[in-house]
UniProtKB/TrEMBL annotation:
Residue intervals of the Riboflavin kinase domain: 187-311
Reactions catalysed, as given in the entry: riboflavin + ATP = FMN + ADP + H(+); FMN + ATP + H(+) = FAD + diphosphate
Pathway stated in the Swiss-Prot or TrEMBL entry: Cofactor biosynthesis; FMN biosynthesis; FMN from riboflavin (ATP route): step 1/1; Cofactor biosynthesis; FAD biosynthesis; FAD from FMN: step 1/1
NCBIfam families the UniProt entry points to: PRK05627.1-2, PRK05627.1-3, PRK05627.1-6, ribF
The keyword Lipid biosynthesis appears for this protein: no
Entry similarity comment: Belongs to the ribF family.
Any one GO molecular-function label of the UniProt entry: ATP binding
GO BP annotations listed: FAD biosynthetic process; FMN biosynthetic process; riboflavin biosynthetic process
Top-rank lineage group of the source organism: Bacteria
Family annotation (Pfam families): FAD_syn, Flavokinase
The protein, known as: Riboflavin biosynthesis protein
Keyword annotations from UniProtKB, A to Z: ATP-binding, FAD, Flavoprotein, FMN, Kinase, Multifunctional enzyme, Nucleotide-binding, Nucleotidyltransferase, Transferase
Length: 323
């Protein structure tokens, strides 16, 4: 899969079948959309392409207004989004920098400069509620009319449902906020995980008896707290662990988000490694403690609960194998 930061240059502007969206957490609704794009591209001899945005447009406008609480929490970082799009069979992803200039682009300019001249779109599919251009003035009818003028087909996809619930990024965020990883998996079509490179931390965990590997989280995630997790990328099989995702209020009240993972019975150095942390269950919310002794006791209890989780799961798997 080819990834472009902004519009491709002339030599890379092959005609394409395109869809446009934020794709925060490539859930089953997104997957259905991407399957249509892939099928159309194959039938027409085009590249299957996705245009997405960084930062999320609502995050851009929240920062501009000075009220970051209006920005949506992120389900996935850019790396995980691109991995999911690659797994969906997309040939080309355009990561458009959403800034003041892009936000001010008129719907007509977006059609001519981006879709026609920039991406050579021949087939386009968007969600049934898609809006574009400055102040979201562009709509489906405008796209259809432009398609007749410039020679590209426009299609829409109705909402994909899970029971009576619309599958959406908002629904995924709600499930993650509640720590409901069963429902999250149903909406995503796969277990929820975050990936990142292991970085150096304060190494306080070592002094408390719980060494951790640390992953930087660049954006406000859709969940926080203490979790039972398993870590992929350190061994042939995922390793059991307990993790804290938050701002560590007891030891550093600076608001910097970090994912700290204590892998059970694992002592190897892993700085710089790319790992994937899969979330299995939420134990509790993040808390601020009066001292390190109280914090250590809480971590010890968290670790015991996580070990019990894995022991119960392994026992259940063994019983199933015997049937």
């Amino acid at each position: 899969m080819k990834v472009f930061r902004g519009l491709p240059n002339d030599r890379a502007r092959a005609p394409c079948a395109l869809t446009i969206g934020n794709f925060d957490g490539v859930h089953r609704g997104h997957q259905a959309l991407l399957a249509h794009v892939r099928s159309a591209a194959a039938g027409l001899g085009l590249e299957a392409a996705v245009m997405t945005f960084e930062p999320h447009p609502r995050e851009y406008f929240a920062r501009k207004s000075g009220d970051l609480s209006r920005a949506p929490a992120r389900i996935a970082n850019l790396r995980d989004k691109l991995e999911d799009l690659d797994q969906a069979g997309i040939d080309r992803v355009i990561v458009e920098h959403f800034n003041e200039q892009f936000a001010a682009m008129s719907p007509r300019d977006f059609i001519e400069r981006v879709l026609v001249d920039g991406l050579h779109v021949k087939w386009l599919m968007v969600g049934d509620d898609f809006r574009f251009g400055a102040r979201r003035q562009g709509d489906i009818a405008m796209l259809v009319e432009a398609g007749r003028e410039f020679g590209f087909d426009v299609h829409t996809l109705d909402a994909v449902m899970h029971g009576d619930q619309r599958i959406s990024s908002s629904a995924v965020r709600a499930a993650l906020l509640e720590g409901d990883f069963v429902r999250t998996k149903e909406l995503l079509g796969h277990p929820y995980a975050m990936s990142g490179h292991v970085i150096h931390g304060q190494k306080l965990g070592r002094t408390l008896g719980f060494p951790t590997m640390n992953l930087r989280v660049a954006h406000r995630p859709a969940l926080s707290g203490i979790f039972v997790v398993q870590v992929h990328g350190l061994a042939d099989a995922p390793l059991p662990a307990v993790a804290s995702l938050g701002v560590r209020p007891t030891v550093e009240d600076a608001g910097r988000m970090l994912l700290e993972v204590h892998v059970f019975d694992y002592a190897q150095q892993c700085y710089g490694k790319l790992v994937r942390v899969e979330f299995l269950a939420k134990l509790r919310d993040e808390e601020k403690y009066d001292d390190l002794a109280t914090l250590t006791a809480a971590i010890d209890n968290d670790a015991a609960q996580a070990r019990a989780f894995f022991a119960h799961r392994n026992s259940a798997l063994t019983a199933t194998d015997r049937i």
